[in-house]
């Protein structure tokens, strides 16, 4: 029988999200892919430095207990060429990352391979690929390579922080806020406190993390946080929505518009997801962060 990824949390990640290829990427962005390939070939035996999402991947793979069926599969899904892919695999092996599968498309958009991979999460430094993945119904975020590295203070705990509206939840309430302002938003949410919000693109990811946590027979644990600009009275609908989904988060921060960065610095996540570029800018100074280009705050680009 062919191999199957059924029942696993499948995370697809670009090489630039996993490793620090920024120096090499300068050649790639200059449309000189031959020079890029030559440089990567010269550095085949030089392990790439960890990238922004390295800690996330490292900890996710630790949920695969020895001798048991794997629970997490990480696949490299990259615009790199196959020669550069050799360096990716060698670097992964150097760090002890059990990554076996990869797709390398040499400049072409790789997002179309997310469906046969059954991927639930896609992390890439390429905004167009992220938007296409979101349009296809896959949770995706554009990784900011300049983000801070994750804290090493919690080696046996995977920590993930999520924004609410347009990330875990739909952008229904955000649309009211954008169109009518804060007072209308609060009135809208107070009136609908008992009505669950529709799911956003990252609900399946939070569900998958809860399943990992509930399995509970590895040394690894999961700790999640909702970090939102909502405040009372709009907090209640967010909590009730999670209750309706039967999903628990460990921490909930209702910040009422305060900058999120310093709060995230204290939570120390391995990754933070938000749809607002302003929040990502604040967060990325302290923690690894990714932009979720979904909802009304992220209209389609003119060149897409």
Can you tell me about this structure?
- By secondary structure, the protein is of the alpha/beta class.
- The chain folds into 2 domains: 9-143, 3-Layer(aba) Sandwich (Rossmann fold); 157-291, HAD superfamily/HAD-like (Rossmann fold, 3-Layer(aba) Sandwich), CATH 3.40.50.
- It is 38% helix and 16% strand.
- It has helices spanning 15-18, 22-29, 33-42, 54-61, 82-94, 114-117, 127-135, 172-180, 182-191, 203-215, 235-245, 261-267, 277-284, and strands at 9-13, 72-78, 101-104, 121-124, 139-143, 157-162, 221-228, 251-254, 271-274, 289-291.
- Strands 3-2-1-4-5-10-9-6-7-8 form a 10-stranded mixed β-sheet, with helices on both faces.
- The radius of gyration is 19 Å and the shape is globular.
- The model has no long low-confidence stretch (mean pLDDT 92).
Concise account of the structure shown:
This protein has helices at 15-18, 22-29, 33-42, 54-61, 82-94, 114-117, 127-135, 172-180, 182-191, 203-215, 235-245, 261-267, 277-284; strands spanning 9-13, 72-78, 101-104, 121-124, 139-143, 157-162, 221-228, 251-254, 271-274, 289-291. The chain is α/β, with parallel strands linked by helices and 304 residues long.
Using brief descriptors, characterize the structure shown:
Rossmann fold, 16% strand, 2 domains, 304 residues, alpha/beta
Strand content range:
15-25%
Q: What is the number of strand segments?
A: 10
Pairing-aware structural class of the strands and helices?
alpha/beta
The best one-word shape is globular
| Element-level helix/strand string | EHHHHEHEHEHEEHHHEHEHEHE
Number of domains: 2
- The proportion of residues forming helix, as a percent range, comes to 25-40%
> Would you tell me which CATH topology of the largest domain applies?
Rossmann fold
Low-pLDDT regions: none
Average pLDDT taken over every residue = 92
The CATH first-level class of the largest domain comes to: Alpha Beta
Strand order within the widest beta sheet: 3-2-1-4-5-10-9-6-7-8
**Per CATH, which architecture of the largest domain?**
3-Layer(aba) Sandwich
Query: Terminal Cα separation, in Å?
Result: 40 Å
Determine Rg (CA atoms, Å). Answer: 19 Å
